[in-house]
UniProtKB/TrEMBL annotation:
<dbReference type="InterPro" id="IPR026816">
    <property type="entry name" value="Flavodoxin_dom"/>
</dbReference>
<protein>
    <submittedName>
        <fullName>Flavodoxin family protein</fullName>
    </submittedName>
</protein>
<dbReference type="InterPro" id="IPR008254">
    <property type="entry name" value="Flavodoxin/NO_synth"/>
</dbReference>
<feature type="domain" description="Flavodoxin-like">
    <location>
        <begin position="3"/>
        <end position="142"/>
    </location>
</feature>
<dbReference type="Pfam" id="PF12724">
    <property type="entry name" value="Flavodoxin_5"/>
</dbReference>
<dbReference type="InterPro" id="IPR029039">
    <property type="entry name" value="Flavoprotein-like_sf"/>
</dbReference>
<dbReference type="GO" id="GO:0009055">
    <property type="term" value="F:electron transfer activity"/>
</dbReference>
<dbReference type="InterPro" id="IPR001226">
    <property type="entry name" value="Flavodoxin_CS"/>
</dbReference>
<dbReference type="GO" id="GO:0010181">
    <property type="term" value="F:FMN binding"/>
</dbReference>
């Protein structure tokens, strides 16, 4: 299955998560930064995972630019999932849910619940156990697509 992980990352934390998820999804899976990415990069992709930091309670500006290219049906027949990285705040915002909605609106079938992985501060590091949580979440995607 042709799989792509598209991520945004200001300080490297989401990149680390994205690369761990890509490794778990299979050796052919690439993790690519979202900056400047066009819809042509999705040609032939059957499983799309997107992830980025919560920035101001929503997906980061670069991720919003990427998602804004989608129209109804862009992702028809594509399976997809979304994650974010976020602070341990009472009101942290939910970028993963918003990204998953955007993928779904474009016609994708969401195969894993949107999830947030915690960083200890704006620059990181990832909180203890979050990398392992990300690998387990990727494993749930593998299980879902082989069901
Ligand atoms: C401009 C800006 C806005 C942010 N807004 C939020 C926010 O609303 N909620 C939150 O939990 N974290 C927020 N953060 C913290 C980011 O979630 C954190 O920097 C990010 O997860 C780190 O991942 P990265 O290294 O991949 O960028 C913000 C960070 C920046 C720089």
């Amino acid at each position: 299955m042709s799989t792509l992980v598209v991520y945004d990352s200001n300080f490297g934390n989401t990149q680390v998560i994205a690369e761990a998820i890509a490794a778990e999804l299979g050796e052919d899976t690439r993790a690519v930064p979202v900056a400047g990415l066009g819809l042509d990069s999705l040609t032939g992709v059957e499983l799309l995972v997107v992830g980025g930091p919560v920035n101001g309670w929503r997906p980061s500006p670069r991720m919003q630019t990427f998602l804004a290219q989608f129209s109804h049906g862009t992702l028809r027949g594509v399976r997809a999932a979304a994650f974010d990285t976020r602070l341990r705040l009472f009101i942290h915002g939910d970028a993963a849910g918003k990204m998953a909605h955007a993928l779904e609106r474009a016609g994708a079938h969401i195969v894993a619940r949107p999830v947030g992985f915690v960083v200890e501060g704006t620059h990181g590091p990832l909180a203890a156990g979050e990398l392992e949580k990300a690998v387990a979440w990727a494993g749930s995607i593998v299980s879902a697509i082989h069901r």
